[in-house]
Amino acid sequence: PSELPPVKGLDAIINSRLRLKHFEVFRQVCELHTIRKAAFATNMTQPAATKLIQELEEMFQVVLFHRNRRGMQLTPHGEALRRHISIVFSDIAHISQEFVMSHKAVEEPSG
């Protein structure tokens, strides 16, 4: 494979239209080991899922998966991204839970 250029700065990544859908497709490929299954799990076409994975690799300028007959296996960069994405989704779940709890507290005033 051709070498990728150095990693972009944070501003470039933020301005690259990164969406949670990129991370969700990545997470599904990690779990299911194929783009086809990940696309089905995320209700999108295989070409659309492939494009999101390619965009992630371009944004971070790293190869995330080894592609072979056995499916897609994470590279060391892919493993690192998987760890960070796990934290991102956990934080989002906590934010959502916190907002639900604060909403309930407003609806049910004490006293």
Question: Which labels suit this protein?
Answer:
111 residues, mainly alpha, 5 helices, 2 strands, elongated
Question: Quick one: how many beta strands?
Answer: 2
* Poorly predicted parts: none
Residues in helices, as a percent range: 55-70%
Helix count, DSSP H or I runs of 4 or more residues: 5
The biggest beta sheet is recorded as: 2 strands, antiparallel
Structural category: mainly alpha
Overall, the morphology is elongated
Distance between the termini: 67 Å
Mean pLDDT: 88
Radius of gyration: 17 Å
> Which series of helices and strands comes N to C?
HHHHEEH
Largest beta sheet: strand ordering: 1-2
Give the DSSP E fraction (strand runs of 2 or more residues): 5-15%
Q: How does this model look, in words?
A:
The protein has 111 residues and is mainly alpha-helical. Helix content is 65%, strand content 7%. It has five helices and two strands. The chain has a two-stranded antiparallel ribbon with strand order 1-2. Helix 2 packs across helix 3 and helix 2 packs across helix 4. The radius of gyration is 17 Å and the shape is elongated. The model has no long low-confidence stretch (mean pLDDT 88).
